[in-house]
Amino acid sequence: MTLSSTASKSGTQVVQRVAALLRGISARNRVGARLIDLCEEVGIERPTAHRILQGLVSEGLVRQDEASKRYFLGNAMYEMGLAASPKTNLRDVCHSYLQQIAQRTGDMVFLTMRSGFDGVCIDRAEGAFPIKVFVLDVGMRRPLNIGSGAMAILSFLNDDEINRILSVNMERSLEKYPNYSEANVRKTIARARTKGFVLTDVIDLPGVRSIAMPIFDSHRQPIAAISLSTVVQRMDRSRTETLLNDLSSAVEQIQSKLILLEDDA
């Protein structure tokens, strides 16, 4: 191996480690990431991880809390995220469709978008049915394997990406839901790929059920999902078919609009 190829391999390894550390911090950004957890996840020694992280801190890509010593994403990451954000505002494109579904069904409708290892609720619409099931607040972030909307996104990613996400998220999920099972997650993924949608009982609200369908971009990558939540009694087999038709129609129109907007950009 030549000196130049050795340097190239070394440089690639550094980039991979930086990316892995940033993903690890992103997955834990709400509470902060401990150095020991990042080392175990990325598979690098503590001195190496510490050196890379301090370099990221000096560049503003990462910040470290003085009291807890935990790592968080820095302001520079936020600024770059704004620059990298898509020209199309997904919430604006989808909002009227969420309202239409909520008006027709009377139920609560949510729009979830992928953000790294998480699903983030970016919009919702309330129907007229008197029992409101506030499954998600706008801005609420949960692991990508929790909730029907997030699961609808996760289910249609490629297998390697699913494995990568679950390798991080299952530990996070078990902290809050001790009885949560990866086997059940994978069964839900398999059913979703067969049926084209996710139907689950809401883990936080007994007696509430949610149904969700993914939204794909022009490259057939799942970027978001529309979900509807209501009490179990309002989601029998017959009504579920009606709800699926409403979701499917909205998703098809949204995807067509996204392609047109991309062509015009």
Concise summary:
The chain is an alpha+beta fold and 265 residues long. 52% of the residues lie in helices and 18% in strands.
Name the features:
Arc Repressor Mutant, subunit A; 2 domains; alpha+beta; six-stranded antiparallel β-sheet; 8 strands; Beta-Lactamase; about 260 residues; two-stranded antiparallel sheet; 9 helices
Written overview of the protein:
The protein has a six-stranded antiparallel sheet, with helices on both faces. Strands 1-2 form a two-stranded antiparallel sheet. The mean pLDDT is 87. It is α+β, with helices and mostly antiparallel strands and 265 residues long. The longest helix has 28 residues, at 237-264. A hairpin with a 6-residue loop joins strand 1 (62-64) and strand 2. The protein has two domains: 3-82, Winged helix-like DNA-binding domain superfamily/Winged helix DNA-binding domain (Arc Repressor Mutant, subunit A, Orthogonal Bundle); 86-264, 2-Layer Sandwich (Beta-Lactamase). Helix 1 crosses helix 2 and helix 5 (90-105) packs antiparallel against helix 9 (237-264). The chain is 52% helix and 18% strand. The chain is globular, with a radius of gyration of 20 Å. The protein has helices spanning 3-27, 35-42, 46-58, 75-84, 90-105, 148-154, 159-176, 182-195, 237-264, and strands at 62-64, 71-73, 108-115, 118-125, 141-143, 198-201, 208-216, 222-231.
